[in-house]
Amino acid sequence: MPNHADWSPEALRGALEQAAEWTIDYRRRVGELPVFPTVEPGRVRRALGDHPPLEPDPFEGILADFDEHIVSGLTHWNHPGFLAYFSSSTRAPSIVAELLVAAVGVNAMLWRTSPAATEVERTAVDWLRQAVGLPPSFSGLILDTASTATFTALLAARELAGTRVRSDGLAGGPALAVYTSEQSHSSVEKSALAAGLGHRSVRRIEVDEAFRMRPEALDAAITEDLANGVRPAMVCATIGTTSTASVDPVEALAAVTRRHGVWLHVDAAYAGPAAMLPEQRGRFRGWEEADSIVLNPHKWLGTSLDCSVLLYRDVAPFRASLALTPTYLESEDDETDLMDIGLALGRRFRGLKLWVLFRCVGTDGLAGTLRRHIEMAESAAGRLVEGGVFRLAAPVSFSTVCFRAATAGADPEAEDRWNRDILSRVNAGGRSFLSHTELGGRYVLRLSVGSVHTEERHLDEALEALHRAADELSPGGPG
Amino acid sequence: MPNHADWSPEALRGALEQAAEWTIDYRRRVGELPVFPTVEPGRVRRALGDHPPLEPDPFEGILADFDEHIVSGLTHWNHPGFLAYFSSSTRAPSIVAELLVAAVGVNAMLWRTSPAATEVERTAVDWLRQAVGLPPSFSGLILDTASTATFTALLAARELAGTRVRSDGLAGGPALAVYTSEQSHSSVEKSALAAGLGHRSVRRIEVDEAFRMRPEALDAAITEDLANGVRPAMVCATIGTTSTASVDPVEALAAVTRRHGVWLHVDAAYAGPAAMLPEQRGRFRGWEEADSIVLNPHKWLGTSLDCSVLLYRDVAPFRASLALTPTYLESEDDETDLMDIGLALGRRFRGLKLWVLFRCVGTDGLAGTLRRHIEMAESAAGRLVEGGVFRLAAPVSFSTVCFRAATAGADPEAEDRWNRDILSRVNAGGRSFLSHTELGGRYVLRLSVGSVHTEERHLDEALEALHRAADELSPGGPG
């Protein structure tokens, strides 16, 4: 019996060549595929079969099955008409980097378990820090997602705010509270649940008319909690909220957290990279006062999933909350062992794709893409409202536009249905994929530009589809 | 200004060809590289430079820098002499799968955000379940690492054991406890810290002479806690502990957890795949009674990092502890939205590499590799003790051997130093990489076979280096 049924170098070369050609072809034709698939639940599973094969299949047939049964059932995040959520498209160099990451297959849990993987990660994170203009007092690492980064920051904040949390746990200790705006991402709430603080610990601070957290409301909430014996653990401000990409007034919020001695975390997962643009830098004022910041290169910068950068000013509370070094992993190396910051022990070599991206595109190229996306979004917003059917539901922020079809004197409920129908029809067309949100209790359409593949013509197409759908589906019913 | 500084199809083809050739060449020559690099902390960072480039660099130069400055500083997890920790080598098909994952770049957070990604994941997980002989009542998903999987299980268990944890948090509630053996992985302790249970919540249950948790000690600990008003949240049993690969008596432990109504989690991260072998199946007796099980295809099965499978019998407590569906992600689809199970919202298309592995290797091929590794480890253990210098420090279990150089009447402290020196010398040789652990307070050497690249001759080489080092470094000092 052979040691393993692995491939010969020739077989690997053949498979890589086929996969590479498939990749190039996919990027060429993805714009012609329906961005959201028409597939009923369970169809892909049935096509794949019920049982694993006993014997190897040739790669050619597997690739054909992948193309026929799997790719036809994907939502194409790399489609140029993908304007939903926040985009997470993949720049070409990141694909090549992922191949190299898989080739070396190292585990960056300790410096010792792959010194260069830790050092590339720290280099790439520091390059990003410089590119977005944060001071050298910040360092950090790469986690999978912003949810994990925010959770990790909350554990550090919990340790500082609580009483002997690491040793004694939360039971028997004081109640802790987390503050974030009504508009912040669900990951803040989920982090509080996971951290054992409970749903009740989350204070949803009210926002102003532009969906920005009100500093005086934050101050009042903290003051009230303190009076009631509740300890404030963390404030999470957002630069680029999920619904409208609004920007919390971080400088004013930082003054509040500083006064009360509360941890300030900034969620800049989507918008963070825009700090590379001098003309946008002002929107980030105050974030250098944060204790921790998360930004996701796998969103707007175009590294593939997953690549979420957590930056912090002081590593000590992160280590205090979680670091454990079992005997079988003890080492005498000086460099940071990144597994001590965060929950996961095994760590992919995520730094490589960010480093490759900087090298292959350059900061000017990266910034240019962001600038172009913002211009496209602003231009699209202008043309959206020109027709008189759509109105902006929030100020355009970064590359995100919230809007709603509206007619004078219409019933808001009927208008909600109208907008819902418009979205369904546009998305069913397969050429554009938009999402929705809720603002002030109303159903709102949402378009966010952030894909490396999106050009003006794809926005033209989306706008045309929106106007056509709004026209055909009048609020009174199908036209 | 162009929309983006991304590559043309020709540039992508050229870079993929170079990276593919590099990959094939790396797999050919990795056995000739020192498995653990000689690199002082900071050298790689200095070589990469302080600042990100403004302008793009040609890929050829970047690949050359990668090879010269980064690869020379890696610990080579795909080296055939990698016998440390638990192996995490990469089968060739998994490399190709990662290329395809990066090419499509989808996010499997909701069924809707990529239906096929969710369905491939569920198919691959079910194939693994069948392969290891677990009943169809188990389903699951893929997370990054076993630490995350165990943490996720603990959150579900915490919800069931506590009092309104999701809504009210742990403060004010009863103290909870987690039970695991003295030999279990640090991730259990880390999970308890992250979950807010505190270090004090972790009961390290004593083990027998073969490093297996004692069921009667577990029963006594739970009984004592209950008498003191402490609520047992979870028992974590291990099949294949980190130090010795020992197997907790899961059937007997399950009887204890059933009697007390406590969640049983089984950590089979390393050894789980061995349940594919009929001759090993008996060692897994009782694991079908667990509430949750983790096994890592990225360890012994040869998918690339990261691929950790969490199986559970009932999804409800997982959803109860964490599920949140914000408006902007609401959908009306029936299939499971996997982001509701676990902390991370964004999810890589990890199912593909496991599916590709099953298709490209087949269950017979996968099982054959595991069987061969176990035979190699048993054979190596036999030859190790033959020379009279080394003694087994634990029973050989699966493909893991714990041993120690020992001489009659020697001072144990001096013997510890001797073993430490032996390990340093062998690892410095660059041909084999072993690790160590502590058993009964003594320093113990550890060899684990699990790489798809390791053949008999690599074990011969490691054994020869061990015997030579033991000979040259007598306990009395350098020979």
How does the helix and strand content of chain A classify structurally? alpha/beta
- Count of individual domains of chain A: 2
Shape of chain A: globular
Ends of chain A: how far apart? 70 Å
Spatial strand order of the main sheet of chain A:
1-7-6-5-4-2-3
What is the quaternary state of this protein? homodimer
Can you offer a commentary on this structure?
The structure is a homodimer of 479-residue chains. Chain A has 479 residues and is α/β, with parallel strands linked by helices. The first copy, chain A, has helices at residues 9-29, 43-48, 59-70, 92-104, 115-131, 146-161, 165-168, 186-194, 215-227, 250-260, 297-301, 316-322, 351-386, 412-428, 456-472, and strands at residues 139-143, 176-181, 202-205, 231-238, 263-267, 292-295, 308-312, 390-392, 400-405, 435-439, 442-448, 473-474, 477-478. Chain A folds into two domains: 7-36 and 75-90 and 362-479, Aspartate Aminotransferase, domain 1 (Alpha-Beta Complex); 106-348, Type I PLP-dependent aspartate aminotransferase-like (Major domain) (Aspartate Aminotransferase, domain 2), CATH 3.40.640.10. Chains A and B meet through helix 1, helix 2, helix 3, helix 4 and helix 5 of A and helix 1, helix 2, helix 3, helix 4 and helix 5 of B.
